[in-house]
Amino acid sequence: MNVSLIIPYYKKYNEFQKSLEFNKCQYSLAQEVILIVDHPVVEGFSFFKKNYPEINFRIFVNQTEHSWRNPSVVINFGISQCKSNYCIIISPETILLEPNSIKLLIENTNENNFSVGRIIFLRNDLNFENNSFINKPLEINCELLKLFKYRNTRKHYIIGPVYYGSICCSKKNLNKVNNYTEDFTNWGGEDDDIRNKLIKSGITCNKIPEVCLLHVETPDEFENRFKINSKKNNDNIINNFVEIV
């Protein structure tokens, strides 16, 4: 498929290993999977290239150590490197519940629109009838999860399903709006902002209800989902990445 998957990555090795096992068949459909590791590494990432030969991995590593930051600048680096006409942005811990998610997103995207599916945000300490959701993600009943209302509260363990997160868009249209805004350092803001910029430029949002993703995160990540801090990233970050495989 004429699509590049862009995965911004920061210290999520175990989470990525888990999601990759579920997503590998779909990832193999992409022209390339660009994994941007936003921290120095010594070893370990050649594992993915060696053990998943069906996936065309391109792995870039930032050689400069730093604390976690909003992935907008890392996503922009991935966009600048992609060889396909279309991009899908996906988090390393995201699991594709619908087995045709990549296919559906790319088939429903053209130069006049961008596509987005539904996503469920789930705390990894949630238990239901003594079975952990994180251990059996593909057995989650999406109809059951629809019963949980979307609420901005720390008391809830599930948010969604909502049309959010991973988008599929042409590289041309992303470049047209100067890609992701890099003014966000904490979680949040960049997803809403890129959609708003695309829509304001005349690109329509195509919602694909059949596409359902699962984003599993820690309790702290879940609670911090509603805390947004706008602070400019360092403009020289993009020069710190080196392709290793």
UniProtKB/TrEMBL annotation:
- Ranges for domain Galactosyltransferase C-terminal come to 165-209
User: What organism is recorded for this protein?
Assistant: viral metagenome
Q: Name one GO molecular function term.
A: transferase activity
Which N-terminal residues, if any, form the signal peptide? none
InterPro entries on file: Galactosyl_T_C, Nucleotide-diphossugar_trans
Question: Top-down, what is the taxonomic lineage of the species of origin?
Answer: unclassified sequences, metagenomes, organismal metagenomes
Q: Which residues form a coiled coil?
A: none
The protein, known as: Galactosyltransferase C-terminal domain-containing protein
Q: Which UniProt keywords apply?
A: Transferase
